[in-house]
Amino acid sequence: MTKTRAETDSTKHRLAWALIMLGALLMALGAWRGEVAVVLQKAIRICLECIGIG
Amino acid sequence: MAKRQKTERVRFRRAVQLFFAAATNSYVTGFAAGRIYQGKLKQLCHPGLNCYSCPGALLSCPIGALQAVIGSRGFSLSLYVFGFLLFVGALLGRMVCGFLCPFGLIQELVHKIPFPKKIREFKLDKPLRYVKYAVLLVMVILLPMLLNNAAGEAPPTYCKYVCPAGVLEGGIPLVYFSPPGADAPQASAALPGLPPVKIIRKEGPRFVTGALFALKMSILALTLLACLVIYRPFCRYICPLGAAYGLLNPVSLYRLRLNDARCISCGACRRACRMCLDPVQQLNHAECVRCGDCVNACPTDALSLGFGVKREAKLPVPGKEIQ
Fold first, then answer.
1. Segment B288-303, tens digit of pLDDT
2. How many domains does the structure of chain A reveal?
3. Which residue in A53, A54, B135, B256 is a FRET match for B126, CA 20 to 30 A apart?
4. DSSP B184
5. Among B308, B293, B309, B323, CA closest to B259
6. Which ipTM score applies to this complex?
7. CA–CA separation, B287 vs B290, rounded Å?
8. CA separation for the pair B63, B45 (Å, rounded)
9. For the segment A7-43, what is each residue's pLDDT rounded down to a tens digit?
10. Residues of A near B (CB-CB distance < 8 A)?
11. B171–A52 CB contact, under 8 Å
């Protein structure tokens, strides 16, 4: 049986919410295990590779 | 849809693009003093491609941050940045490309410059669009994961060898326009087997550039030249961030909605799409940057952009009375 567009859209809508929740959870886990500090340390120094120096 | 309303929509998108690019790069002192913002906001990622070494940048580049964490000693995968990409991608999809990405804005503005021949589509256009997925997988994820040095750290391969946004937003302002200062790091760079470095600023060089800088400037020049001819070539073929959001585009909450009952299959949306898609057949395709050109072109208002799916059902059908 083929799904109608409305049914497909509804499924996608639910999937989007599930992925948003998962994304938020992963962000929280990443922050909890200290990844934010790594990001900050990299971002507050001029990234010589990024600007093409070294 | 009234012509005035369409014009307003186009202007609104441009205003959002300009505002977001300016607001997230508003550390004006950085440009004047030749340094970058070092506050805590940099813990957060920018949704678009925006180099964190741009003197004005207040936020981190998600692609740079992803490589930094993957390439660091302590982690081999970044839950924080993957989570961020998943969150933003599932919420907005490639609307980020169309509305929030500063490098996307730059490409659009360059494309507005008159040029004798503007190309919409060419033979290799479709296959080349898969290159960005390879860039994401190989240069952003695998190489920083595998190329560890003695200290257990890996360079940000994509940022180092590909990213034209880094050299445009960070490299050019810092190398050519920042005052020569003693507080800045100096470095030399050369690709293996290529000529030695060249001093840019004789009165106290702040940065010393070499073959790597020349390579990145060439990539930038090529990208900007391509923008004159093709609409958003970097987004289409290279951008790893566009690839990540593209994977989530078909399910994202902010989406293009089609009211089948109103569609008269006139093809106006297909002709208006500068990403060369057919919105009716390829609704919410991975390449759709949600620019809204198709929505503006639709003579029957069958297409709309928004969050969720509910509004579609409420749209009235021409010739039918609303109960």
1. 999 999 999 999 999 9
2. 1
3. B256
4. S
5. B309
6. 0.93
7. 9
8. 9
9. 777 888 999 999 999 999 999 999 999 999 999 999 9
10. 5-6, 9-10, 12-13, 15-17, 19-20, 22-31, 33-36, 38-40, 42-54
11. yes
